[in-house]
Design a protein that fits this description.
alpha/beta, 4-stranded mixed beta sheet, 4-stranded parallel beta sheet, 10 strands, elongated
Length: 351
């Protein structure tokens, strides 16, 4: 009887596991569930027969008590599962908390400008689909997302529109704009939402006049034209801002960007930045060691320090004629919202 019961539960586990892993109730799942049910029924019949053969009242009481315990556990488990399902609660037992969204993701979902249609494109039998489906459902619990699923065999027009061609791809639509990812993780899904949330034609002001890097140049030594192009691709307009002549940051500034100023700013310019930040503005400072920008006191007010030094990693080999150790490569990460999704298989290069 014990063997039949054990085999029955194993067959049920295989059947349900295959169904949840693939998102498809195929022949394998059906056969395992049917076999599991038959084995459990056979075990139950044998158990009842054993109970009927029990010659003493005490023996029957023992069997009845065991059945009552098993039945109670099953009913309690079903009740807990149904209660959590009705409340929309999820219990994330994955080792890396894959379905526990970071504060940045939750804030982005709360700040979405409107309802977003999300379509998961899949192929039957793809084992990745169930994980992606659960992740999208978790997103939808915290933001205005409408979820859809389409079999890629019957979605050629949509695939051509989104320029997609593989299973387990996700498309986000907001009006006429869309973003896609073919590797859906919390990080890539968040990137899609952030790209859609950006209001087109927002302005980034590039600080100039103090020896900053050139956003129009492609020179490897001081050119940031690649970054400029990436920002424009995200819908931003770039304008130069001569800080030496600035006493107030323009109201249309989505961000003020300093690309390693080599000379100190005037106090009046720093005060203009301070007032801009107090109004809810955004400041991005990229600073090479060996220079004083004049921004250090302002950054210190936000708990940010810029030590005048270089991080060296003796284990890192030279790269492109640079000194050994001056291009650290990191493969170990602590647990922090900024490192979610990074693991020992992900190498981060700090040039």
């Amino acid at each position: 009887m014990r063997a039949l019961t054990l085999l029955g539960f194993i067959a049920l586990a295989f059947g349900l596991g295959a169904h949840y892993a693939t998102g498809d109730f195929g022949l394998f799942s059906a056969l395992n569930l049917a076999a599991g049910a038959l084995l459990l029924i056979a075990a139950s019949i044998r158990s009842i027969a054993t109970m009927q053969r029990a010659t003493t009242t005490a023996g029957r009481r023992i069997l009845i008590r065991h059945f009552a315990v098993i039945l109670g556990v099953l009913l309690f488990s079903v009740a807990v599962e149904r209660g959590l399902a009705l409340r929309g609660a999820n219990l994330d037992l994955t080792p890396t908390r894959d379905f526990e969204l970071s504060p940045a993701t939750l804030q982005t979902l709360a700040d979405l400008p409107g309802e977003i249609d999300v379509t998961l494109f899949y192929t039957l039998g793809d084992p990745r689909i169930e994980r992606t489906r659960l992740l999208l459902q978790t997103f939808a619990q915290h933001g205005p997302l409408r979820l859809h699923e389409r079999d890629i065999e019957h979605a050629s027009d949509a695939l051509e529109h989104f320029e997609l061609g593989s299973s387990n791809s996700v498309a986000f639509e907001l009006g006429e704009r869309f973003e896609t990812t073919t590797y859906p993780t919390e990080g890539t899904l968040l990137e899609c939402l952030l790209a859609l949330r950006v209001t087109r034609d927002r302005v980034i002001y590039l600080a100039t006049g103090e020896g900053e890097y050139d956003f129009k140049s492609a020179e490897p030594s001081n050119g940031f034209s690649g970054l400029a192009q990436a920002l424009q691709n995200e819908g931003f307009r770039l304008k130069e801002l001569m800080m030496a002549a600035t006493t107030q940051i323009p109201d249309d500034a989505a961000l003020v960007l300093f690309a390693s100023p080599q000379h100190s700013l005037r106090d009046v310019s720093v005060q203009a930045l301070r007032e801009y930040l107090a109004r809810g503005g955004n400041l991005l400072v990229l600073q090479d060691p060996g220079f004083t920008s004049g921004l250090e006191p302002l950054l210190g007010e936000y708990g940010i320090e810029l030590p005048d030094g270089i991080l060296l990693d003796p284990a890192s080999a030279p790269m492109q004629d640079t000194a050994s150790g001056s291009n650290p490569i990191v493969t170990l990460y602590t647990q922090h919202p900024a490192t979610r999704g990074l693991n020992a298989r992900t190498a981060t290069l700090f040039r």
